[in-house]
């Protein structure tokens, strides 16, 4: 009976609690449906002084989240009278303003310049490319018969198959031609170096640093058909540049002499290792010919120690002397700035091709005296000794690296073959290291009396 009363009382308390919770929820639902007014806070027990004090302190503020729209200082031209007449919240409407489109061409200067620059670049590219191709074609057609008379192969270097032998286009401004099959030379390489007319930046640079179209012809002489000497005749500007850049000229004949000493015009300078060679090559006939074509002859470079440009990178020190060749190099300029007709400009340098063949025959017959030969050999020996001194450290380091690599390979081979051989090799290496570290003593033998 006792347990039954406890259980019954618990059930009644739970039911009462649930009923109070349901009534409380209904009161909140009615509160939300009522208009926005101050809530009527009333409790069942009005006599409680604490509740009366709390009721006096409780105030409900009706904050309007759109209150800033009613501020006259916030918006200009805001209609306050309409706001008081209309109880509804004000609505702000954003006008659809069209995107401004300027019809004046002055507003598009940068875009116009960009388009004009692109059109000008491509127009100059196609014009310059066609101009260089036209010059190369005219040069080949003008000299083709003369080249075929002196060489058995014209336009075939033996490396690639060419159906129509002729000029090889290296770049838009560079063309090459290889000729072979002639006595006293291994072959002749013709290189046409035109102005970079296809490049608009290069054409603009012409106003500051003008350059000319060039024809560079390099003849590889046979070893037995050219004696030992280095010689060069060039314009003053080219001679100064070659003496700094070319390895053979800077080493064997750094001294530059004026061309007037040999009967040439003042625009030429002469580099010569041997005075005997200068007097033999620059005879009266050759001097007159060079002076006649002084406006198109830029450089005549004859050398038995030609190795190209001088090495300027100090970090990469060579361990052996560079390969050298016996060559004759002729550089002529095409006077396209003087003649508007390309055919006429090419025709002015046509006689110089015959001059090249005459120089080849003269160099073949030229033989220096015994004294000059000894002097030239001393110069080459001196250069070789100086090179060996400068590269001694580099060669010693390379030799030590090769020795270390050889020892490493031998050790790996022994380790793979047999442990017994490995042990013997280690003992041998240890003894060698001890002998190397031990102080060296000189043994003296004393004869017994």
Taking the alpha carbons of the first and last residues, their distance comes to 145 Å
Number of helices: 14
Q: Which bin fits the share of residues in helices?
A: 40-55%
Largest sheet: 10 strands, antiparallel
Structural class call reads: alpha+beta
Tally of strands: 10
Give the low-confidence spans. Answer: 1-6, 18-47
Strand residues, percent? 5-15%
Q: What is the radius of gyration computed over CA atoms, rounded to a whole number of angstroms?
A: 50 Å
Shape: flat
Structure, explained:
- It is a single chain.
- Strand 3 and strand 4 form a beta hairpin.
- Helix content is 48%, strand content 14%.
- With 449 residues, the chain is an alpha+beta fold.
- Strands 1, 2, 3, 4, 5, 6, 7, 8, 9 and 10 form a ten-stranded antiparallel beta sheet that branches.
- The radius of gyration is 50 Å and the shape is flat.
- The N terminus is likely disordered.
- Helix 13 packs antiparallel against helix 14.
- The chain has 14 helices and ten strands.
- Belongs to the CCDC47 family.
- GO terms for molecular function: calcium ion binding.
- This is PAT complex subunit CCDC47.
- Its main location: endoplasmic reticulum.
- It is a single-pass type I membrane protein.
Question: Helix and strand layout, with pairings?
Answer:
Elements: H1 2-33, H2 49-57, H3 80-85, H4 109-150, E1 153-154, E2 168-169, E3 174-180, E4 185-193, H5 200-205, E5 213-221, E6 230-235, H6 236-245, H7 247-252, E7 257-258, E8 268-272, H8 275-281, H9 284-292, E9 297-306, E10 325-334, H10 342-347, H11 351-365, H12 370-390, H13 392-417, H14 419-437
Helix pairs in contact: 13-14
């Amino acid at each position: 009976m006792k347990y039954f009363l406890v259980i019954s009382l618990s059930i009644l308390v739970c039911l009462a609690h649930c009923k109070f919770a349901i009534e409380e929820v209904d009161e909140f639902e009615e509160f939300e449906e009522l208009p926005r007014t101050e809530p009527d806070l009333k409790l069942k027990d009005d006599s409680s002084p604490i509740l009366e004090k709390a009721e006096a302190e409780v105030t409900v503020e009706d904050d309007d989240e759109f209150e800033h729209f009613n501020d006259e200082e916030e918006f200009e031209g805001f209609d306050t009278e309409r706001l008081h007449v209309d109880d509804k919240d004000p609505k702000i409407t954003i006008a659809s303003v069209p995107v401004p489109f300027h019809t004046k061409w002055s507003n598009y200067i940068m875009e116009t310049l960009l388009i004009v620059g692109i059109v000008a670049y491509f127009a100059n590219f196609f014009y310059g490319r066609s101009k260089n191709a036209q010059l190369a074609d005219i040069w080949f057609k003008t000299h083709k018969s003369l080249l075929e008379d002196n060489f058995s192969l014209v336009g075939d270097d033996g490396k690639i198959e060419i159906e129509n032998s002729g000029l090889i286009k290296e770049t838009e401004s560079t063309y090459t031609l290889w000729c072979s099959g002639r006595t006293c030379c291994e072959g002749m390489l013709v290189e046409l170096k035109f102005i970079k007319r296809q490049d608009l930046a290069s054409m603009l640079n012409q106003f500051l640093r003008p350059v000319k179209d060039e024809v560079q012809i390099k003849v590889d002489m046979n070893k037995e058909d050219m004696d030992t000497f280095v010689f060069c005749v060039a314009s003053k500007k080219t001679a100064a540049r070659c003496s700094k850049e070319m390895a053979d000229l800077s080493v064997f004949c750094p001294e530059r002499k004026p061309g007037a000493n040999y009967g040439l015009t003042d625009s030429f300078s002469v580099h010569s290792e041997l005075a005997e060679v200068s007097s033999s090559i620059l005879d009266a006939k050759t001097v007159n010919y060079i002076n006649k074509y002084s406006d198109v002859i830029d450089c005549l470079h004859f050398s038995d120690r030609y190795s190209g440009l001088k090495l300027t990178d100090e970090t990469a020190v060579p361990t052996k002397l560079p390969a050298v060749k016996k060559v004759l190099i002729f550089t002529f300029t095409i006077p396209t700035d003087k003649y508007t007709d390309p055919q006429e400009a090419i025709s002015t340098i046509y006689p110089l091709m015959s001059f090249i063949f005459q120089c080849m025959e003269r160099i073949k017959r030229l033989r220096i005296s015994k004294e000059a030969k000894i002097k030239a050999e001393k110069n080459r020996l001196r250069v070789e000794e100086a090179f060996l001194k400068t590269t001694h450290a580099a060669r010693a380091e390379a030799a030590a690296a090769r020795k270390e690599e050889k020892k490493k390979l031998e050790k790996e081979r022994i380790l793979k073959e047999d442990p017994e051989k490995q042990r013997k090799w280690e003992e041998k290496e240890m003894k060698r290291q001890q002998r190397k570290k031990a102080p060296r003593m000189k043994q003296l033998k004393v004869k017994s009396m």
